[in-house]
Amino acid sequence: MTHTTTRFPEGFLWGASTAAHQIEGNNVNSDWWRKEHDPAAKIAEPSLDACDSYHRWEQDMDLLAELGFTDYRFSVEWARIEPARGHFSRAEIAHYRSMVEGALARGLRPMVTLHHFTVPRWFEDFGGWTADGAVELFARYVEACAPIIADGVRHVCTLNEPNMIAVIAGLAKSGEQGFPPAGLPTPDEETTHAVIAAHHAAVKAVRAIDPAIQVGWTIANQVYQALPGAEDATAAYRHPREDVFIEAARGDDWIGVQSYTRTRIGADGPVPAADDAERTLTQWEYYPTAVGHALRHTADILGPGVALIVTENGIATADDTRRVDYYTGALDQVAAAIEDGLDVQGYLAWSALDNYEWGSFKPTFGLIAVDPDTFERTAKPSAVWLGRMGRTRELPRTGA
Length: 400
What we know:
It comes from Streptomyces tropicalis. The chain has 14 helices and 15 strands. The N and C termini lie close together (5 Å). By secondary structure, it is an alpha/beta fold. The relative contact order is 0.16. The mean pLDDT is 96. The chain has one domain: Glycosidases (TIM Barrel, Alpha-Beta Barrel). The strands form four sheets. Strands 2-3-4-5-6-8-11-12 form an eight-stranded parallel barrel, surrounded by eight helices. The protein has a three-stranded mixed sheet with strand order 7-9-10, with helices on one face.
């Protein structure tokens, strides 16, 4: 048995990610808040106060910085910034600007996501992404974020997981309830075109604010693996659910790779994981090498010129030792990809906090535990372990 150390490149982003609606609490003007309180939606539990990070973001950043992380990805909430159409809240813009300045003051480089699944209620009522003028409304919102991102923000994400936005739109149109046991529902084609157009308009708006900002978007990478003889079926299944969104990133500065598990595809479609496979709290197969497959597939599609950043990767578990094991396997894959010449510029774990996972607080992805009554934050051993590598950029690796 040999023991080696891999050193990540200078300037490598080493951090954790969150999303506003999942941690802030009381995001009352968003479409998701309305959905959570609609009995017909059958949401298990509402977000309510969530982690109260709207008021406790300084505690969150203090902990991340103390642990050794150098980067923090968080999102700004469109429903707060533009709670009514055409009305932009100066107070909320100042709030998010304070977060940017707070991150910088703590030595955390902020990566700001402009849209992480939620939209204002008025935008949903207007017709959402496929309504006439929706792209222009999103671009106007991005322009309004200029005071937040114009100074000190190097990385901006336009939209998080647009392929999931299109998938959820397709699910809504079909009238189906819930996701299949393996794979994803068919994305809505009209929504696919709309969010791609919104992304391109947002990229243009961000570059007009400051051409030095590195701008991109993040994709939910399902790691589609073909069973013997199903290569063509896998490519056909994957393209509308993933590849078309990766292809839309050509010309961007970077693309976010977000992977958690794999999806095996047979001649007749997705095949569930084996009955004896280890599963996480989300019932996904435990598969830490997923991120390596996702990085290589994304690089194969885009070729050189667009940097890769792992913007989400993690595991929902109550056993923190399994979280460390998962991250160990995942980071071995990231290091191997870099050694093979892929331009991987960062790794941001999901999630900084145990948070609201779109219907339930039960799937605990967090590096930091949050008491639901007192909101006390407690770093888990995995947070200490992962954060320790932040300043050194060194990953201990064991080989045969």
